[in-house]
Amino acid sequence: MEQTWRWFGPDDPVTLDQVRQAGATGIVTALHHRQDGTVWPDEEVRQRQAEIEAAGLVWSVVESIPVPDAIKLGGSRAAPAIAIFADSLRAVARAGIRTVCYNFMPVVDWTRTDLMWRLPSSGYALRFDAIDYAAYDAFILRRKGAEAGHRPEVLARARERAAAMSESEQAALEKTIIAGLPGVAGEINDRARFERRLALYDGLDAAELRANHITFLRAVIPVAEEAGVRLAVHPDDPPFFLFGLPRVVSTRDDLRTLIDMVASPANGLTFCTGSLGSRPDNDVPALAAELAPHIHFAHLRNVTIEPDGSFYEAEHLDGGTDMVAVIATLLAEEARRGEELPMRPDHGHLLADDIGKRTNPGYSLVGRLKGLAELRGVTRALERLGNPRPAVAG
Q1: Which residue of 30, 127, 286, 379 is 20 to 30 Å from 145, comparing CA positions?
Q2: Annotated catalytic, 294?
Q3: 386 to each of 328, 331, 333, how far by Cα in Å?
Q4: What is the pTM assigned to this prediction?
């Protein structure tokens, strides 16, 4: 597989030289200063590409061209926003970049409640704590109808936890949840703006959001086909409703519907093992085996789920997903196609001398370097053994 690395541009604390030292050859990035719903200009795409190539690397995957609220909400404002997305798609295609990752999560993108959760190893992981999330949703934000969206036993613990928090602790939790994480378009900086965006989605259900997603795909997939680009939708993270908002890229049926409703080689998946693995009814190796022909990009990470629905980022080869089985499937798919699939290590732990430095949460150097080395080792071992593809349940 092509070993790639997410890089957040010139302001990223991880330099391109360090990416090369980690052993990656491809860069996954975007025009992070162009997340405002305007078209990506050719000259800015070429400039970013030139920076990457000057460091001896290639821009392999765009992650992500923003999909604004107007598209997710549908209606009269959707068509102009879709046209902007399509023009940006053409711009990256003219630069020779052939894989574009995007997501369709409304209001909140990938979401965590703790960015510095202490591990037994003394490193730090990202964590989604179901109790903290319910405490914020129901008792700090006090969203109308929030209590109905949480299990009674979770809600009871959340009530106690919220009551025990100081104002500064509540503010820190709010910032972690809604202020935006690395790579998130349209960051929300305060509660008032967050509530205004939530209100835009009042009454929008999963069927309507899915219909709007399919409308979007039917408009942009012909553009992608003509330009020679493959779109790869990223699963919801976490893969369940948040703040009463529907999420429709969370399950096997969700993924199958999107693929089947707009059947095209240009309409595919970013197979994120961590996002899909955060939901206990997703059999991630089985999903990889079923959906392999539609996978255009892979995010390889692992999570450990707890009984109350909380989860944290585990070691890349531990957690709830059999990563060896997933990699074996992806290698078999590469052999079938006769071309490499780009993959990247995702959400590394905060380790060693990265602790205390300025880092992007989940995207420090040492933890991802460790993860990439482990994934590379699995890949090399499977290739040496002739990639004996393990049996997958289901």
Answers
A1: 127
A2: no
A3: 10, 10, 14
A4: 0.95
